[in-house]
Amino acid sequence: MVKAYVVIGANYGDEGKGLVANALCREAFLNHNKALNVLTNGGPQRGHTAYDAEGRRHVFSHFGAGYAYADIYFSKFYMVNPMTFFMEYRKLKACGMKMNRIFIDRDTTITTPWDMLINRMLENRRCGGRHGSCGYGIWETVRRNKYFPLFWRDFIGKHYLEIEELLKRLRDSYFKCILDEYKITLDGDEWKVWYGDGLIKNFAADIIGMMGIVGVSDYETLARQYERVVFENGQGLLLDDEVDPWGTPTKTDLTYARKIANGAEVIPYYVTRSYLTKHGNGHFDGECAKEDINATMVDLTNHPNEYQGTLRYGKFDETRARELRMRIEADAQGAPYKIVVTHCNEFECPYLDFGDFFSYNEIDLGKEKIKI
User: For the whole model, what pTM was predicted?
Assistant: First the structure.
């Protein structure tokens, strides 16, 4: 089977994984090779900024950052939300970006609007400060799937009314228990949204619509059709919940990519900015003021929002740089890996000279030093 390139965030996320995944897919495209961009873990809480050949900028969340040059595959370890899928799908069409083929695994997990609503209501009710969740219901989806699993295969062959019934059963059984467990009493507006017919009808319509767009396939069958496969991870190694108590419940390392590749060679590309960033609360070693990095730089992707707050900044010193290398080597487990250092135009770090590639311009990768 074709070897797989795996793009992994080496820190707390926001490292530039979208730039690297896009570059790997674009290189295949320019060499007239077919590429498949695999969404490996997490869900649409990601925000991976990339550009197409015409310079159109997009922050990819539900889709892979290589979508302008590659077909997309939602793996069985990814969480699909038909509602957010269509929000992004329409944006991509409206901006004129090339619409490549989209595939999904039968066993891909589904996030529902109630997973998202629970997530947001909990954040809004926290008295001791928010955790910094993205508000996309990732943790709630993982938890719910242990008791009331919902996969893409559960919709295959079903018509609209059957899907509505399934969603109502989920809302009125499992999610009723969750409201009770969290001691959440819905206020008037929340009750209208939660039990309103519009939510179920619109979500069922999104599911039906998405079934008309995506093809169903297992990875091994699909991968044989491509010369290059690019796995695009979400989050970063330091956001694994085994490392950070407030981290993500989905694996951020090579685990899922190795399982999907099923014995095929994987080549990880670990990505780090020249400085550190983090969303949300929790421990952040090396934290500093933005002005200590670059007072004039402007982040076009990470805007302050009500759920994650403002992006936090930090610096590498010799110790943290050494820990970065150790973290990468431990995750690679002997696989031949590459290290990509991004955002070097904003800050130059003398402790990251061991990188293999250095990106100085996040807008036009064709005019800077990254060669993949």
Answer: 0.90
